[in-house]
Specification:
alpha/beta, Dihydrodipicolinate Reductase, domain 2, Alpha-Beta Plaits, eleven-stranded mixed sheet, six-stranded parallel sheet, 14 helices, binds NADP nicotinamide-adenine-dinucleotide phosphate
């Protein structure tokens, strides 16, 4: 019998407790697949007294995450506490420095300190596996790092935050406001009490920075991502998108351009016929455009105990099998620096919604300002607002435009001129379009 892989787990919350259960429940299958048993030998959490529905008899309760990380009886340190700082970070560093392999689901830590940790893993020979950190059950890290090791990648984009996709789906399907859908998401446990990190796009940005590093061989850099959240999206935008053959999703997009790698997170119009547009509710999805192959779209649960534990246990199984890939798909010394792509240079189609003042010549003024910047219009919809009794309401009229590919700089200049002309009320809405 080959010696078991001895695992120590720090954190027994939603994910950690489920990992202990899965290792127990799947013991025979894991032994058969890995050629050796996987045995949990030590655990820890904040409170030893808390009821967790786990049978921890025969398992050592360590006094701290660091104690597990440095325990000579532990081969693989599994960090399921969360947070980019103490105690998760120092414990992972200690485990790697001791030559152990580490498994974590901690996107914040990988996005902020992934390079340093990867260098430590490389130096001391341990694995650093973090499949669950992006898209939970979706095996996107493995797909990029191993499955597509021989394929150049031009673009990777995805729905990486279930909270935002849930809100946008409800807004679209039920015509509800952003605020109403957010309140429901909080009531159902899909959104945090402080939802800023999710709805303002920062969670997606952390995950995108990790995917971009794997796809393009760049140093993982959250600060190089341009970020916009979904607060400004209205039911009207979603209705207009629907009429024009699009859906609005919060996408993380990393793309190779002539000017370098662009990493951006923002509400995005995607054609209704695209794979990514079919993804509704809390589900996550990632599309990878590999050179010479049709796009690959992976869809699945991006959060939840079972989905996250599924990826964590698969990472532990790789350690048991002796499989070790470089954390970012190549040695750290080979990763290239990346700077923030200036959004003014972004090129693509745009959705523009303006409230045109109700006087003669407004449409002509808008058309002139766009033409001055060489912006061509693909379609235009002018909606007379309804009073509710079927009769047209007087006052500003929504004008919705879809442009052909142009630059962000041109769009910003045209809209500034339109605003200066005082032919529209309020700020124009701008949503970028991503074609498949
Ligand atoms: N939940 C998901 O759907 C999901 C999805 C993808 C990735 N993740 C990632 O998975 C990780 C764990 O998330 P989770 O949802 O399982 O979190 P959680 O339910 O809040 O659990 C955190 C665990 O860490 C323990 N802990 C906190 N501070 C500690 C300390 N100082 N020393 C020792 N233990 C400490 C807690 O102990 P007590 O139980 O005693 O309080 C708890 O058991 C995070 O990195 C998260 O981003 C989660």
């Amino acid at each position: 019998m080959v010696a078991p892989l001895k695992v120590g787990i720090a954190g027994l919350g939603t994910v950690g407790a489920e990992v202990v259960r899965v290792i127990e429940r799947q013991a025979a299958t894991l032994t058969a697949r890995c050629g050796r048993p996987i045995k949990v030998v030590a655990v820890t959490a904040r409170s030893k007294a808390k009821k967790r529905g786990l049978d921890l008899r025969g398992i050592d309760w360590a006094k701290s995450p660091l104690a597990i990380a440095t325990d000579p009886n532990v081969d693989c340190f599994v960090e399921l506490i969360g947070g980019a700082g103490d105690p998760a970070g120092p414990a992972i560093e200690a485990a790697l420095a001791a030559g152990k392999s580490v498994v974590t689901a901690n996107k914040a830590l990988i996005a902020k300190h992934g390079l340093k940790l990867a260098a430590l893993a490389e130096k001391h020979g341990g694995a650093l596996n973090y499949e669950a950190a992006v898209g939970a059950a979706i095996p996107v890290i493995k797909t990029l790092r191993e499955g597509l090791a021989g394929t150049g990648i031009d673009r990777i984009y995805g729905i990486l935050n279930g909270t935002c996709n849930y809100i946008l789906t409800r807004m679209e399907q039920e015509g509800l406001s952003f605020e109403a859908c957010l309140a429901d998401a909080q009531r159902l446990g899909y959104a945090e009490a402080d939802p800023t990190f999710d709805i303002d796009g920062h969670d997606t940005a952390q995950k995108l920075s990790i995917l971009a590093s794997l796809a393009f061989g760049t140093k993982v850099s959250e600060s190089a991502v341009y970020v916009e959240g979904i607060r400004s999206i209205t039911p009207e935008d979603l209705r207009a998108a629907d009429d024009l053959g699009y859906r609005v999703k919060l996408l993380g997009v990393a793309v190779r351009t002539a000017k370098g790698i662009e990493q951006r997170v923002h509400p995005t119009m995607v054609p209704k016929t695209s794979s990514i547009a079919q993804v509704m509710g809390v589900t996550n999805a990632v599309t990878i455009d590999g050179q010479g192959i049709p796009p690959i779209t992976l869809v699945g649960a991006g959060a939840g105990a079972a989905a996250t534990a599924s990826a964590v246990v698969a990472d532990i199984a790789d350690v048991a099998r002796g499989i070790r890939a470089e954390p970012f798909g190549r040695p750290v010394a080979g990763l290239k620096a990346i700077s923030k792509a200036p959004m003014e240079r972004h090129e693509g189609g745009y959705y523009l919604r303006m409230l045109a003042r109700d006087h003669a010549g407004t449409a002509a003024t808008i058309a002139t300002r766009l033409a001055e910047q060489d912006i061509s219009i693909e379609s235009i919809v002018q909606r007379q607002p309804d009073r509710g009794d079927g009769k047209a309401k007087s006052g500003p009229v929504p004008v919705i435009l879809i442009t052909y590919a142009t630059s962000e700089d041109a769009v910003r200049r045209a809209l500034k001129a339109v605003q200066a002309d005082k032919v529209i009320s309020g700020r124009p809405q701008v949503i970028r379009i991503e074609k498949n």
